ABM domain-containing protein
Amino acid sequence: MFVQVIQGQVADPEQARAALDKWAQELAPGAEGWLGSTAGVTEDGRFIALARFESAEAAQQNNDRPEQDAWWAETSRLFSGDATFRDSTDVLVDSTGDPESAGFVQVMQGRGTDPDRARELMSQDSDAWAAFRPDLIGSLVAQHEAGAYTMAMYFTSEEDAREGEGKEPPLELKAQMEEMNKLSIGVPDFFDLKRPWLYSPR
């Protein structure tokens, strides 16, 4: 899988939503290999989107379409400054429910010292994690250069997610959390998408 992360500051979230709705309605049918997109705007106007494709080649073919160029030329005007792009072919997806039904999505960006070990930890005890946090119905992690990552976590609702955050984990899961925290460099950046925009192929 290939993931492209697009982010930047926008003044009008509704215009940004309309632009992505337009892409999903008019351009998505011709986007070969597109698997879906997660996007939204935080309360302080930070836009972030994760577009998923079967491969980097499929994403490039989409970018090369004239209609894609025209759409982006119009959409880019909605950003207060330049939008940034980060690509990844090192993607880990996990789901215990239907992420497309999420009522709240939290995107976390940070940097770690050992991406391979982090991946091992995230793939362990999936049944125990599902039982402990039934509010977390899916996740996607895209690894970038130099240990950087973008992680999207899909929750049933923000209320459920906040309640889940306050729960005390079992000892084995707590040990995993503590090791994950030790791998982190600095403080991650969080994007709380209280009204997530979830798109998938028809």
User: Anything to note?
Assistant: The chain is about 35% helix and 35% strand. Residues 2-88 form a domain with the Alpha-Beta Plaits fold (CATH 3.30.70.100).
